[in-house]
C-alpha cells in the first residue's frame, strides 16, 4: 500500500534492509522500518504501519532519493567532521555487547543505575568506537 510520500507495510515482519556505503553495510531491522504508532487499515482489513523509509516528491525528486532518518541513524554510530572544506561522515556498526536498546537500559535501572541511561561499560564501548572513527577520519 503506497501513501503520498512513502509506503505502508505489515506492522510485523522478519525482513531487513541493507544499505551499502563503499565496503560498509548497515542493516536496518524490520522493527525500525515499521512505525508502530502510524497505522492504517489496508483494503483487505489488515493493520499496516507507515514505513520509516520515505522518498521525496516533486519535480526534481526521483525514486532513487530516499529519506532514512532515524531508522538508519539509530542503527550506527555516526561521526560528522566539519573541520575539512568538504566535510566527512564516519559510520561504525553498533556493538553487540552493549546497551543498545531500552530493555538493556531498563536492566541497568534495575541494577541501581538510571532508567534509559547506558551503563558505564556501554558508554566506554561507544566512546571507543567514536574515538576510532575520529582517528580514521583524521
In words, what does this structure look like?
The chain has 138 residues and is of the alpha+beta class. The protein has 2 domains: 72 residues, no CATH class; 64 residues, no CATH class. Helix content is 26%, strand content 33%. It is built from 4 helices and 7 strands, in the order βββαββαββαα. The strands form 3 sheets. A 3-stranded antiparallel sheet has the order 1-5-4. It has a two-stranded antiparallel sheet with strand order 2-3. Strands 6-7 form a two-stranded antiparallel ribbon. The chain is globular. It starts with 5 loop residues before the first strand and ends with a helix.
Residue-averaged pLDDT: 70
Global structural class: alpha+beta
Order of helical and strand elements: EEEHEEHEEHH
Q: Helix amount, in percent?
A: 25-40%
Please tell me how large the radius of gyration is: 18 Å
Q: Please work out how many helical segments DSSP would assign.
A: 4
Largest sheet: 3 strands, antiparallel
Number of domains: 2
Record the strand order, biggest sheet.
1-5-4
Shape: globular
Which residue ranges are poorly predicted, with pLDDT under 50 across at least 5 consecutive positions?
Answer: 97-120
Q: Hey, roughly how much beta strand do the residues contain?
A: 25-35%
Strand element count: 7
Distance between the termini: 45 Å
Amino acid at each position: 500500500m503506497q501513501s503520498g510520500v512513502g509506503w505502508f507495510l505489515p506492522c510485523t515482519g522478519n525482513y531487513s534492509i541493507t544499505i551499502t556505503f563503499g565496503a560498509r553495510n548497515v542493516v536496518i531491522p524490520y522493527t525500525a522500518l515499521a512505525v508502530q504508532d502510524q497505522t492504517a487499515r489496508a483494503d483487505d482489513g489488515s493493520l499496516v504501519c507507515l514505513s520509516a523509509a520515505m522518498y521525496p516528491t516533486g519535480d526534481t525528486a526521483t525514486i532513487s532519493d530516499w529519506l532514512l532518518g532515524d531508522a538508519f541513524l539509530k542503527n550506527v554510530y555516526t561521526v560528522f567532521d566539519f573541520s575539512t572544506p568538504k566535510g566527512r561522515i564516519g559510520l561504525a556498526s553498533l556493538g553487540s555487547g552493549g546497551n543498545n536498546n531500552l530493555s538493556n537500559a531498563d536492566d541497568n535501572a534495575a541494577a541501581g543505575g538510571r532508567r534509559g541511561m547506558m551503563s558505564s561499560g556501554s558508554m566506554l564501548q561507544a566512546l571507543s568506537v567514536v574515538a576510532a572513527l575520529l582517528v580514521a577520519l583524521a
